[in-house]
Design brief:
This protein is of the alpha+beta class and about 270 residues long. About 35% of the residues lie in helices and about 25% in strands. The chain has two domains: about 5-140, Fructose-1,6-Bisphosphatase, Chain A, domain 1, CATH 3.30.540.10; about 150-265, D-Maltodextrin-Binding Protein, domain 2, CATH 3.40.190.
């Protein structure tokens, strides 16, 4: 049986090391190092090198675990008892354009459920982590979701569609509903950090569609272990491959879910 409390600080250290590598690379980064994986999906050698660094370190920690990674620098294998889900650079577009908001996201999955999650927000030097049943911490200090119970007192976060535009009309209706009824909506460009900020109470809720498992695997656990709720747009228990997500504190979760299902799920 894996000792999650013992593993947690070691994975935090790996995420920090990758983050420090990213910060150094951004200082001298040039656009010539960027290529396009698909529509609006940027990648560079930095993403790949950071992933290789993380994979090597995690493989030393847990040789029997498989991997599911964004850049595919290692054999992808989720048919194991445990496997890692890694986004070595969540917020690549921010990174490429010199914005200081990007993160490293690492999750350990057991039977397709996250049991350990780490999100390292590089620019702020903030390391969020959680283990199943063990709560969520920020730089070692316990954090919880906010206690806000009304939308009018809530700050929400989202991500704009950038490759899947099939739900744009419903997304726009959702924004139009929330604009006058909340304190605002933020779009910071990294799903992992959106979830981490929801976990520590900076955001009351977060919603987005068109996501990949490595965007959300660690963050889902952060929110749940901080006392929040997470589901997909259908109201299901947010498997990491569901592509849509709603995460919020318990006070506004039902309201956010209701609005999104009315405006998006119904066309």
């Amino acid at each position: 049986m894996i000792d999650l409390p013992d593993l947690r600080p070691q994975v935090e250290d790996i995420a920090r090391a990758a983050g420090h590598f990213l910060k150094i690379q951004q200082a001298t980064f040039s656009q010539e190092r960027v290529s396009l994986k698909s529509l609006n999906a940027l990648v560079s050698d930095v993403d790949e090198n950071a992933e290789e660094l993380i994979v090597s370190a995690l493989n030393s920690l847990l040789p029997e675990a498989g991997f599911l990674t964004e850049e595919g620098t290692v054999h992808q294998n989720t048919n194991t008892n445990y496997y890692w889900v890694i986004d070595p650079l969540d917020g690549t577009t921010n990174f490429v354009h010199g914005l200081p908001i990007f993160s490293v996201s690492i999750a350990l999955m057991h039977q397709d459920e996250p049991v350990l999650g780490v999100v390292y927000e590089v620019g702020m030097d903030e390391c969020f982590s959680a283990i199943k049943g063990g709560g969520t911490t920020l730089n070692g200090n316990r954090v919880r979701t906010s206690t806000t119970t009304e939308l009018k007192d809530s700050l929400l976060a989202t991500g704009f569609p950038y490759y899947d535009f099939s739900g744009v009309a419903g997304f726009q209706r959702t924004l139009e509903y929330f604009y006058p009824k909340t304190r605002g909506i933020r779009r910071i460009g990294t799903a992992a950090v959106d979830l981490a900020y929801t976990a520590c109470g900076r955001f009351e809720g977060y919603f987005e569609y068109g996501l990949s498992p490595w965007d959300v695997a660690a963050g889902i656990l952060l929110v749940r272990e901080a006392g929040g709720q997470v589901c997909d747009y259908q109201g299901d228990n947010a498997p990491i491959d569901s592509k849509s997500i709603i995460a919020a504190n318990k006070g506004v979760f039902d309201d956010v879910l209701k609005v999104i299902q009315h405006n998006i799920s119904n066309g």
